[in-house]
Amino acid sequence: MTSSDAEFDDAVRCHATRVRHYALRLVRDPWLADDVLQETFLRAWKYWSTFRSDSNREAWLIRICRNVAFDLLAQRNRRRESPLRDEETSGASSLLSLDTSEALLDLSLEHREVIFLVDFLEYEYDVAAEILGVPVGTVRSRLHRARSALRTSMRDAEHASPSTVTRSA
Predict the structure, then answer these.
(1) CATH architecture type of domain 1-89
(2) Both ends of the chain: CA-CA distance in Å?
(3) Domain ranges in the chain?
(4) CA angle at residue 101 from 133 to 159, to 5 degrees?
(5) DSSP conformation class of 116
(6) CATH topology agreement for domains 1-89 and 90-161
(7) What's the half-sphere exposure (Cβ side, CA atoms, 13 Å) at 97?
(8) What is the C-alpha separation between 46 and 144, in angstroms, rounded?
(9) What is the per-residue DSSP string for 40-107?
(10) Is 114 in a helix, a strand, or coil?
């Protein structure tokens, strides 16, 4: 095994979980997320020699994942299929409440994506901008709009749901 092979193996071990979480948030289908993950690492292996060592390896992999996910979603849309809403993506996340998960799913893809990168994966704005291929200011404005939409959606859901609190006499 060459040092390049060992570096790639380390990258897979180190980043696969976060890359899959990102893919799952984009495509909303665990089976498709696995396909995205596999294709991401296939492309990463193919272009491993082009990776600049001064770059952020995880950001590079997330960017590849984003491109793969968009390619697969475009193929699905051309076939008029839509991603499935699986139990895992419709609220069974261990990190989120059912209401929060549903509110996130209602956001646009670009808003859901920036929330996930910055708030869940905890990327700095400049890294998120690199992944998304947009200026840092765009990340900031999308994040502001996404958080506002999420707050509004959560507030609306809270007011729409009947109170489950009962008073005892």
Answers:
(1) Orthogonal Bundle (1.10)
(2) 74
(3) 1-89, 90-161
(4) 120
(5) I
(6) no
(7) 6
(8) 36
(9) HHHHHHHTGGG--TTS-HHHHHHHHHHHHHHHHHHHHHHTT------TTTTT--SSS-HHHHHHHHHS
(10) helix
Which residue, chain included where needed, has tokens 């895992």? 88
CATH architecture of the domain covering 90-161: Orthogonal Bundle (1.10)
What are 87-141's pLDDT values in tens digits? 434 333 344 455 566 777 778 888 888 988 888 788 899 989 988 899 999 999 9
Question: Tokens for 146?
Answer: 């996404």
The structure tokens listed for 26 are 């984009």
Give the length of the chain: 169
Residue with tokens 């980043």: 15
